[in-house]
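Pasting as-is:
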Amino acid sequence: MTEIRIYKTESGEYLRFTCSGHAEYADYGQDIVCAAISILVINTVNSLEEIAKEPMQVETDEREGSIRCTFLKRPLKDASVVLMDSLILGLGQIESQYGKQHCKLTFEEV
């Protein structure tokens, strides 16, 4: 299962997000759920960096299939909030369509 965890403040500001694990929907190279999650997450990170110019720290581990994106300034720029809301929308739709056994989206207040 791929688990995506969104960390927010008590007031709802985005702090960071993590994505780890493999969806295990299908064999390696054929897993459309894993591919969809990866595309959404990587595109969001790239867009936060290139379009929104959001200061952040990104750590990845390809072997374990994990990524951690930590925002370095608060509040986020308006464009960054829209990008994060879009990521959550897409991941929520994947979770609804393919089930929590493959994609689990959780939120944590920090």
